[in-house]
Give the backbone structure.
Amino acid sequence: MSLDRALGVLGLIIGLPGFFALFFTNQGTVASLAISLAIVLIGAGVLRERAVNQPAFKCKRVDLNVTVDPKVAVLKKTYRMVPNFNNLHDFIHRNIAADGQIHTFLWNGKPVDQGRISKQLGEYSITTLLVPTPTKGKEFGGELSYTMDDAFPAATESMIYAIDIPTEIVSMTLQLARPCTKAEARIDASGQSHQIPGRGLLISEDRKTLTLQAKRPRVGSWVRIYWDW
């Protein structure tokens, strides 16, 4: 049995007799102390469970900048993150995929070692080494970039960012090689797709720059920008 569950069980063992003693005996002081101790133990168990089960990192902000050309596109993801634990030496980037070939993975401007690049079912996972090792609760930054060949050949295209850790702000900027005729932004979650309302997606006057900012998207959702050109 885990420590958090043990604390909860112990709290119930102490609290239930105290509850009955409070109402059915004249030992009110002892009963109140028992109930107070039970509340403390159960609360400690809940807090510990949340602390242990929280993700390794939370993201304050991620800026996704993409130079979009049908032949060669370059993507850069700039992160501002906070570790929830000490001694975290790696960060795994998942959900990396494109219609064409992806290559030239860089972390903070330096090539990622081939042993830290894996591909399964068409998706890449990149494990980046964090140097120096970040301190728990202290914000740090990093940038992942890569090149995509022949990734945007169609008349209707999209850029997708998957939310796999808690993120406060997602900012996406697409620099298109030629003007778009139509564009929209959506958030997909739990099998449902919702258009981002209002001025969520900004289109430049020349219709070649698309900018989107989403606040606190749900973990497991996808932030998407679609366009026609």
Remarks:
- Helices lie at 3-24, 28-53.
